[in-house]
């Protein structure tokens, strides 16, 4: 009986190992394909880059609304997309709004009024809370990706700085946390993250910042870049925790399945949706 139990445990371990290997292969293949599509468009910029940003933001919003069971192909879903696209409108394309004497804020408020009108039309089946979730979620995704475009407009170096800095934060937090982590960072939200890993992620991000300061033309002193990087690394981790909290609240494992082995757009860009606006707010770019 004991031998049978040991055999069953060994079989389960083998299945687990095979599952992990398959997941790692999926992650690598997806990462290579995504990089082959994403990076050349980011390098080129222009309309292809704007189109890619609109596409990723729209998919991210779809994933967010799906958590609350709001379909994109309903009136609230369509209003959310309209609001998203208003927020995403780049500076160079806002001139036609001026011709009609409207601003982005005014158009956005019109959409909010339509949302509130819909709560009355549905006799509160679509509630004020649903409106709040839709509007706040759209601001979160829309402004995050808007500042993705703003960061790219300031120079490709700032996009690559943000990407490598967050990758270093994530990798450092994972490996240092795995090796030295003892104290949980926020177990109610993300039980595997540790304080030691979080600090390690910040240290790795600062190392990346030092390399960018030496080998690129990034427009910041070493001290300024270190301070900004520490803030961005911390808030990048907060962005990751926000996404984890959302998924835990709505009881979903991943935000989507568009990136096999990685999850959805929000799973991959949760940290950067916090970082890209802050790059501008902290005046790393003007």
* DSSP summary, beta strand count: 2
The end-to-end distance, rounded to whole angstroms, is 71 Å
As for the number of domains, it is 2
Q: Encode the helix/strand succession as letters.
A: HHHHHHHEEHHHH
Which structural class best describes the helix and strand composition?
mainly alpha
Q: What is the count of helical runs?
A: 11
Unreliable runs, pLDDT <50, ≥5 residues?
none
Read across the widest sheet, the strand sequence of neighbours is: 1-2
Summarize the amount of helix as a percent range: over 70%
Percent of sequence in beta strands? under 5%
Q: Which value, in Å, is the CA radius of gyration?
A: 21 Å
Based on Cα principal axes, name the global outline.
Answer: globular
Average per-residue pLDDT, rounded, comes to 89
The largest sheet, given as strand count, sense and whether it forms a barrel, is: 2 strands, antiparallel
GO biological process, one term: CDP-diacylglycerol biosynthetic process
GO molecular function: phosphatidate cytidylyltransferase activity
GO cellular component, one term: plasma membrane
Protein name: Phosphatidate cytidylyltransferase
């Amino acid at each position: 009986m004991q031998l049978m139990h040991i055999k069953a445990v060994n079989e389960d371990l083998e299945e687990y190992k095979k599952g992990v290997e398959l997941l790692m292969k999926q992650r690598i293949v997806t990462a290579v394909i995504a990089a082959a599509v994403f990076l050349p468009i980011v390098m080129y910029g222009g309309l292809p880059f704007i189109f890619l940003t609109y596409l990723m933001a729209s998919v991210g919003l779809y994933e967010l609304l799906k958590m609350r069971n709001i379909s994109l192909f309903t009136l609230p879903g369509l209003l959310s997309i309209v609001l998203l696209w208003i927020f995403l409108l780049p500076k160079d394309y806002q001139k036609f709004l001026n011709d009609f004497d409207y601003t982005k804020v005014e158009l956005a408020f019109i959409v909010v009024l339509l949302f509130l009108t819909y709560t009355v039309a549905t006799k509160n089946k679509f509630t004020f809370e649903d409106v709040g979730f839709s509007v706040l979620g759209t601001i979160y995704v829309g402004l995050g990706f808007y500042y993705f475009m703003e960061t790219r407009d300031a120079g490709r170096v700032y996009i690559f700085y943000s990407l490598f800095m967050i990758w270093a934060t994530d990798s450092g937090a994972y490996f240092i946390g795995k090796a030295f982590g003892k104290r949980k960072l926020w177990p109610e939200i993300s039980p595997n993250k540790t304080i030691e890993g979080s600090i390690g992620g910040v240290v790795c991000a600062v190392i990346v910042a030092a390399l960018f300061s030496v080998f690129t033309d990034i427009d910041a002193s070493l001290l300024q870049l270190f301070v900004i990087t520490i803030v961005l690394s911390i808030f990048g981790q907060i962005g990751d925790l926000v996404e984890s909290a959302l998924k835990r609240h709505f009881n979903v494992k991943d935000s989507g399945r568009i990136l096999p082995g990685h999850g959805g757009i929000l799973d991959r860009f949760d940290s950067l949706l916090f970082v890209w606006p802050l790059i501008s707010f902290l005046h790393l770019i003007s």
